[in-house]
């Protein structure tokens, strides 16, 4: 029998023995003839359990990618949410908006209170959206932009976090940007909603707008630091202490 099986195929009876042509429409097999089964290819079937498992039960590469994205989203998103909740609500031992406002002012961000609220919303909202896999391009871009500004505060101390450097915001920012580009994966609200808020053009637009806005904020902050009466190193040290306290 000729094999026409393909992914997602199913067998149907044609009523013809092997080697004979298919019957015309409306014809049925004659007496004594056994119907034979041929394959009708329905094309790939999405959303089924067997999409993620090979015949032997082995997890396929797409399934591993989706699970990895889920772990990354939940880990990074929950961490960001916790830090944002410290800034906005004073949860988890944080200082709330009032304390974060003072930290923003000492670090050179003006106006300080809107800067504190924006940073808190970016981390809380962006982190929650990343964990849920909802509006992933916008959430990832917002977090990446916020981490760019945070990294600018720590940059004078070098890279490593043990020395007060920008290692920590760099890792969070890179992870958020990667999720914005790669998407949330199968196990997400974006996928459940048909990826309406996860289009390729949204990723490009969100990253360009968010990073441009963050670059402008960083440039304004650096001008304020340069114009401050204290030396640049003293201002950087003070800003680093305030940043750690705000976190």
Spatial separation of the terminal alpha carbons: 69 Å
Q: Which word captures the global form?
A: elongated
Number of domains: 2
What are the segments in which pLDDT stays under 50 over at least 5 consecutive residues? 1-9, 38-50
Number of helices: 8
For the largest beta sheet, what order do the strands appear in spatially? 1-2
Portion of residues within helices: 55-70%
Q: What does this 3D model show about the protein?
A:
The protein has helices at residues 61-89, 96-107, 112-132, 136-154, 167-182, 189-192, 200-227, 232-246, and strands at residues 10-13, 37-40. The longest helix has 29 residues, at 61-89. A two-stranded antiparallel sheet has the order 1-2. The chain is mainly alpha-helical. It has eight helices and two strands; from the N terminus they run E-E-H-H-H-H-H-H-H-H. Helix 2 (96-107) crosses helix 3 (112-132), helix 2 runs antiparallel to helix 8 and helix 4 runs antiparallel to helix 5 (167-182). The chain is elongated. It has two domains: 1-45, no CATH class; 61-246. Helices cover 58% and strands 3% of the residues. The relative contact order is 0.12. Mean pLDDT is 81; it is low at 1-9 and 38-50.
What is this structure's SSE topology?
Elements: E1 10-13, E2 37-40, H1 61-89, H2 96-107, H3 112-132, H4 136-154, H5 167-182, H6 189-192, H7 200-227, H8 232-246
Antiparallel strand pairs: 1-2
Helix pairs in contact: 1-2, 1-3, 1-5, 2-3, 2-8, 3-4, 4-5, 4-7
